[in-house]
Amino acid sequence: MNEKIEFTKRLRAAMTRAGYVASPSVLEHEFNLRWPGKSISNQAAWGWLNNRSIPMQDKMQVLAEWLKVEPEVLRFGESVRKAVQSHKQLWQSGLGFQERETLEEFLALSAPNRKVVREVIAAFTKAERAD
């Protein structure tokens, strides 16, 4: 399904859960109370609520804070967040203390030194696969 349609569904649902009517005028008013920049128009709010547009990330953050929902969930949906968490858990569960410490040290290296380390690891991996 179209991502604009899905975003509109999530925005409308979040507004309803937060106790607001999902209308352009309510969205415009409540958003502009919280947005430090130039106010959005009723037309922009209408677009967000009617499958026409998706706000930029800075505006998405304000919407998420107002509606008390995580920005990535509002933007991409719950399934994306769950997938990211699942991959993160798989990654973290396979690492022991020494591996984590090594990764932290690797991340502290300069870019040229990281490149050298990657090349050394690639060489060892290639040699082991050849055996």
Task: Characterise this structure.
The protein has 131 residues and is mainly alpha-helical. The chain is built from eight helices and no strands. Helix 2 crosses helix 3 (42-49).
List the helices and strands and how they pair.
Elements (H helix, E strand, L loop, with lengths): L2 H15 L6 H11 L7 H8 L7 H11 L3 H6 L1 H16 L3 H12 L2 H20 L1
Helix pairs in contact: 2-3
Nutshell version of this structure?
This protein is mainly α and 131 residues long.
Distance N terminus to C terminus?
47 Å
Q: Using the alpha-carbon principal axes, give the shape.
A: elongated
Question: Whole-number average pLDDT?
Answer: 90
- Give the total of beta strands: 0
Order of helices and strands: HHHHHHHH
Here the CATH topology of the largest domain equals: 434 Repressor (Amino-terminal Domain)
Rg estimate, integer Å:
22 Å
Estimate percent helicity: over 70%
CATH architecture of the largest domain: Orthogonal Bundle
Q: Major β-sheet, in short?
A: none
Number of H- or I-type helical stretches: 8
The number of distinct structural domains comes to 2
The stretches of 5 or more residues where confidence is low (pLDDT under 50) are none
How much beta, percentage-wise? Answer: under 5%
**CATH class label of the largest domain:** Mainly Alpha
Structural class: mainly alpha
Task: Name the features.
8 helices; 0% strand; mainly alpha; 131 residues
